[in-house]
Amino acid sequence: MSNTSKQYDAVILKCRNLFINKMSDYGSAWRILRLPSLTDQIFIKAQRIRGLQQNDVQKVDEGEVSEFIGIINYCIMALIQLEKGVVEQPDMETKEAIENYDKHIAITKQLMMDKNHDYGEAWRDMRVSSLTDLILQKLLRVKQIEDNAGKTIVSEGIDANYQDMINYAVFAMIHLGEGK
Fold first, then answer.
1. Which residues, 6+ apart, have CB-to-CB distance to 127 below 8 Å?
2. How does pLDDT run across 23-58, given as a tens digit for each residue?
3. Whole-structure pTM over 0.90, yes or no?
4. How close are the terminal C-alpha atoms of the chain, in Å?
5. How many alpha carbons fall within 13 Å on the CB side of residue 116?
6. What pLDDT digit, counting tens, does each position of 73-84 carry?
7. Residue 133: which residues within 8 A CB-CB, separation 6 or more?
8. Which of 70, 100, 138, 166 is most buried, taking the most CB atoms under 10 A from its CB?
Protein backbone atom coordinates (compact mmCIF):
# COMPACT_ATOMS: atom_id res chain seq x y z
CA MET A 1 0.00 0.00 0.00
CA SER A 2 2.99 2.33 0.36
CA ASN A 3 3.28 2.18 -3.43
CA THR A 4 -0.31 3.40 -3.66
CA SER A 5 0.53 6.36 -1.44
CA LYS A 6 3.51 7.31 -3.63
CA GLN A 7 1.49 6.86 -6.83
CA TYR A 8 -1.33 8.96 -5.36
CA ASP A 9 1.10 11.73 -4.43
CA ALA A 10 2.61 11.72 -7.95
CA VAL A 11 -0.82 12.10 -9.56
CA ILE A 12 -1.79 14.87 -7.14
CA LEU A 13 1.49 16.71 -7.75
CA LYS A 14 0.67 16.87 -11.46
CA CYS A 15 -2.85 18.15 -10.68
CA ARG A 16 -1.61 20.62 -8.09
CA ASN A 17 1.00 22.06 -10.47
CA LEU A 18 -1.66 22.65 -13.11
CA PHE A 19 -3.91 24.25 -10.47
CA ILE A 20 -1.08 26.63 -9.47
CA ASN A 21 -0.38 27.53 -13.10
CA LYS A 22 -4.07 28.20 -13.75
CA MET A 23 -4.18 30.38 -10.61
CA SER A 24 -1.28 32.36 -12.14
CA ASP A 25 -3.19 32.75 -15.41
CA TYR A 26 -6.73 33.35 -14.11
CA GLY A 27 -6.50 34.09 -10.41
CA SER A 28 -9.33 32.75 -8.30
CA ALA A 29 -12.10 33.47 -10.82
CA TRP A 30 -13.46 30.00 -9.96
CA ARG A 31 -14.51 31.35 -6.54
CA ILE A 32 -17.67 32.81 -8.12
CA LEU A 33 -18.87 29.37 -9.26
CA ARG A 34 -21.82 27.89 -7.42
CA LEU A 35 -21.70 24.18 -6.60
CA PRO A 36 -24.09 23.14 -9.39
CA SER A 37 -21.82 24.91 -11.89
CA LEU A 38 -18.78 23.02 -10.61
CA THR A 39 -20.75 19.78 -10.64
CA ASP A 40 -21.69 20.43 -14.26
CA GLN A 41 -18.05 21.10 -15.18
CA ILE A 42 -17.06 17.78 -13.62
CA PHE A 43 -19.97 16.10 -15.45
CA ILE A 44 -18.73 17.47 -18.80
CA LYS A 45 -15.25 16.08 -18.11
CA ALA A 46 -16.60 12.65 -17.10
CA GLN A 47 -18.91 12.50 -20.14
CA ARG A 48 -15.98 13.31 -22.41
CA ILE A 49 -13.91 10.54 -20.84
CA ARG A 50 -16.78 8.11 -21.39
CA GLY A 51 -17.05 9.27 -24.99
CA LEU A 52 -13.32 8.75 -25.51
CA GLN A 53 -13.64 5.25 -24.07
CA GLN A 54 -16.57 4.38 -26.34
CA ASN A 55 -15.80 6.19 -29.60
CA ASP A 56 -13.36 4.98 -32.23
CA VAL A 57 -12.60 8.50 -33.45
CA GLN A 58 -11.28 11.35 -31.30
CA LYS A 59 -11.62 14.86 -32.76
CA VAL A 60 -9.95 16.92 -30.00
CA ASP A 61 -6.30 16.21 -29.24
CA GLU A 62 -6.65 15.79 -25.47
CA GLY A 63 -6.92 12.39 -23.87
CA GLU A 64 -8.40 10.94 -20.73
CA VAL A 65 -5.58 12.04 -18.44
CA SER A 66 -6.20 15.77 -18.90
CA GLU A 67 -9.91 15.21 -18.22
CA PHE A 68 -9.20 13.22 -15.04
CA ILE A 69 -6.92 16.04 -13.89
CA GLY A 70 -9.79 18.45 -14.52
CA ILE A 71 -12.14 16.27 -12.46
CA ILE A 72 -9.70 16.24 -9.55
CA ASN A 73 -9.12 19.99 -9.62
CA TYR A 74 -12.80 20.89 -10.04
CA CYS A 75 -13.66 18.58 -7.13
CA ILE A 76 -11.09 20.35 -4.96
CA MET A 77 -12.59 23.70 -5.97
CA ALA A 78 -16.02 22.36 -5.02
CA LEU A 79 -14.76 21.21 -1.61
CA ILE A 80 -13.26 24.66 -1.03
CA GLN A 81 -16.53 26.30 -2.09
CA LEU A 82 -18.46 24.03 0.28
CA GLU A 83 -16.25 25.15 3.13
CA LYS A 84 -15.73 28.83 2.26
CA GLY A 85 -18.90 29.67 0.38
CA VAL A 86 -19.36 31.30 -3.01
CA VAL A 87 -18.25 34.91 -3.51
CA GLU A 88 -19.24 37.61 -5.98
CA GLN A 89 -15.65 38.54 -6.88
CA PRO A 90 -12.41 36.55 -6.86
CA ASP A 91 -11.00 36.86 -3.35
CA MET A 92 -8.31 34.25 -2.86
CA GLU A 93 -4.60 34.63 -3.48
CA THR A 94 -2.59 31.68 -4.77
CA LYS A 95 -0.99 30.97 -1.38
CA GLU A 96 -4.37 30.65 0.36
CA ALA A 97 -5.83 28.62 -2.50
CA ILE A 98 -2.92 26.15 -2.34
CA GLU A 99 -3.23 25.86 1.45
CA ASN A 100 -6.90 24.98 0.99
CA TYR A 101 -6.06 22.62 -1.89
CA ASP A 102 -3.48 20.81 0.23
CA LYS A 103 -5.84 20.59 3.21
CA HIS A 104 -8.64 19.00 1.20
CA ILE A 105 -6.26 16.64 -0.60
CA ALA A 106 -4.84 15.48 2.75
CA ILE A 107 -8.33 14.71 4.05
CA THR A 108 -9.29 12.98 0.79
CA LYS A 109 -6.08 10.95 0.67
CA GLN A 110 -6.60 9.77 4.24
CA LEU A 111 -10.11 8.67 3.29
CA MET A 112 -8.62 6.75 0.35
CA MET A 113 -5.99 5.11 2.56
CA ASP A 114 -8.63 4.03 5.08
CA LYS A 115 -10.97 2.64 2.42
CA ASN A 116 -8.06 1.14 0.50
CA HIS A 117 -7.07 -0.78 3.62
CA ASP A 118 -10.60 -2.05 4.22
CA TYR A 119 -11.25 -2.96 0.56
CA GLY A 120 -7.86 -4.56 -0.02
CA GLU A 121 -6.96 -2.32 -2.98
CA ALA A 122 -9.84 -3.75 -5.02
CA TRP A 123 -9.57 -0.77 -7.39
CA ARG A 124 -6.38 -2.26 -8.81
CA ASP A 125 -8.51 -4.98 -10.45
CA MET A 126 -11.05 -2.50 -11.84
CA ARG A 127 -11.13 -1.13 -15.36
CA VAL A 128 -10.69 2.59 -16.05
CA SER A 129 -14.11 2.52 -17.72
CA SER A 130 -15.68 1.28 -14.46
CA LEU A 131 -14.00 4.07 -12.52
CA THR A 132 -15.41 6.53 -15.07
CA ASP A 133 -18.90 5.06 -14.59
CA LEU A 134 -18.56 5.37 -10.81
CA ILE A 135 -17.61 9.04 -11.20
CA LEU A 136 -20.68 9.58 -13.37
CA GLN A 137 -22.86 7.80 -10.80
CA LYS A 138 -21.46 10.02 -8.03
CA LEU A 139 -22.19 13.07 -10.18
CA LEU A 140 -25.81 12.03 -10.62
CA ARG A 141 -26.03 11.57 -6.86
CA VAL A 142 -24.58 15.02 -6.26
CA LYS A 143 -27.02 16.57 -8.73
CA GLN A 144 -29.90 14.91 -6.88
CA ILE A 145 -28.60 16.13 -3.52
CA GLU A 146 -28.25 19.63 -4.98
CA ASP A 147 -31.83 19.40 -6.26
CA ASN A 148 -32.84 18.41 -2.70
CA ALA A 149 -31.24 21.63 -1.36
CA GLY A 150 -28.27 19.68 0.00
CA LYS A 151 -30.35 17.45 2.25
CA THR A 152 -30.05 13.67 2.52
CA ILE A 153 -31.94 11.21 4.69
CA VAL A 154 -29.47 8.34 5.04
CA SER A 155 -26.79 9.04 2.45
CA GLU A 156 -23.39 10.69 2.49
CA GLY A 157 -23.27 14.37 1.78
CA ILE A 158 -21.96 16.18 -1.24
CA ASP A 159 -18.44 16.46 0.19
CA ALA A 160 -18.04 12.67 0.48
CA ASN A 161 -19.12 12.27 -3.14
CA TYR A 162 -16.58 14.84 -4.34
CA GLN A 163 -13.89 13.05 -2.32
CA ASP A 164 -14.82 9.70 -3.86
CA MET A 165 -14.68 11.24 -7.35
CA ILE A 166 -11.18 12.55 -6.64
CA ASN A 167 -10.05 9.13 -5.48
CA TYR A 168 -11.62 7.32 -8.45
CA ALA A 169 -9.95 9.80 -10.82
CA VAL A 170 -6.58 9.27 -9.11
CA PHE A 171 -7.02 5.49 -9.42
CA ALA A 172 -7.83 5.88 -13.12
CA MET A 173 -4.72 7.99 -13.67
CA ILE A 174 -2.58 5.42 -11.87
CA HIS A 175 -4.01 2.72 -14.15
CA LEU A 176 -3.44 4.84 -17.26
CA GLY A 177 0.14 5.49 -16.13
CA GLU A 178 0.64 1.75 -15.82
CA GLY A 179 -0.75 1.17 -19.31
CA LYS A 180 -3.95 -0.59 -18.22
1. 180
2. 999 999 999 999 999 999 999 999 999 999 998 776
3. yes
4. 19
5. 21
6. 999 999 999 999
7. 50
8. 166
